[in-house]
Design goal:
By secondary structure, the protein is an alpha/beta fold. The protein has a domain of 194 residues: Zn-dependent exopeptidases (Aminopeptidase). It contains 9 helices and 6 strands; from the N terminus they run αααβαβαββαβαβαα. It has a 6-stranded mixed beta sheet with strand order 2-1-3-6-4-5, sandwiched between helices. The longest helix has 28 residues. It is elongated, with a radius of gyration of 39 Å. The N and C termini lie far apart (116 Å).
């Protein structure tokens, strides 16, 4: 009788064990992966969607990589645009202090003041000033208006000096109400006049509407720049060129007048909650 060989299980395991272990790893790995997967129909049937969660919780659900649309009521205007218009310029000298022996030209005075107003606004980082001219150049009236309208400006302020041979004081012109509501024009002019008076002027000649010497209250009877700009506007007559008192005030208080005009705009929009103005001191 032949002798039965004893199976050396230790050797079997040594030879086939690693192979068996590899097979088991692959089996459970594949099985586990498939077990973890769900049919798309099961997901939609068992898991609440982001919209369902939103309806249940009262919150607004957004896809992970989208941005919430801006609420129109919450859109904040981040700058106030003010156009400063220095009247006349270049070939148009404007009014003269003495027609027979002119030593002072309106175009020069108003440019000096306009540039000073621009500087006065510089302390307000979110107010942008646009100048219709910054040098001695001639700009058509229609182009001055286009500059403001194309920029969608919030305010338009035109600076002039009075051309009458006699008289003194400051007057501010606005549109008459024939073309629509001129409430903001009146407020702009009123704020400016009040602060100019605090600096000191020879006379407050008032807020006037329309056009000098016009008798009818029609839209056509307004100063061109007031009539053809789309935003609240005013035209300041900063004293008479023929008045020694007004000329002295103009030269003495130039920077203070500029500060008053800029501050008037700031106070108007602040008081009326139209814009939140920040300053750098």
């Amino acid at each position: 009788m032949a002798k039965r060989r004893r199976v050396r299980w230790d050797r079997v395991i040594m030879v086939f064990g690693p192979l068996l272990l590899l097979i088991l790893i692959l089996f459970f790995s594949c099985g586990g992966s498939e077990k973890g997967k769900k049919d798309p129909s099961e997901i939609s049937a068992e898991s609440p969607s982001s919209m369902e969660i939103a309806e249940q919780t009262g919150t607004t659900a957004l896809p992970a990589e989208t941005t919430a649309p801006a609420d129109p009521a919450a859109v904040y205007k981040n700058e106030l645009i003010v156009v400063i218009d220095a009247g006349h310029g270049g070939k148009d000298a404007g009014a003269l202090n003495d027609p027979n022996n002119p030593t002072r030209l309106e175009k020069d005075d108003v440019l000096r003041l306009a540039l000073a107003v621009k500087k006065a606004f510089e302390k307000y980082p979110n107010i942008r000033v646009i100048m219709t001219r910054e040098t001695d150049e001639f700009i058509e009236l229609k182009d001055r208006c286009a500059i403001a309208n194309n920029a969608a400006a919030d305010f338009f302020i035109s600076i002039h000096r009075n051309s009458a041979l006699t008289g003194d004081g400051v007057e501010i012109w606005i549109n008459n109400d024939a073309g629509g509501d001129n409430t903001m024009d009146k407020l702009l002019a009123t704020y400016i006049m009040e602060l100019l008076k605090e600096v000191g002027i020879s006379q407050d000649r008032g807020i006037k509407s329309g056009f000098r010497n016009s008798s009818s209250n029609e839209q056509s009877n307004n100063y061109y720049v007031n009539r053809n700009t789309d935003m609240p506007s005013c035209l300041i007559e900063m004293g008479f060129m023929s008045s020694e008192a007004d000329n002295n005030n103009f030269d003495t208080h130039l920077d203070e007048y500029a500060e008053a005009i800029a501050t008037a705009v700031v106070e108007l929009v602040t008081d009326r909650n139209l814009f939140d103005v920040e300053t750098i001191e």
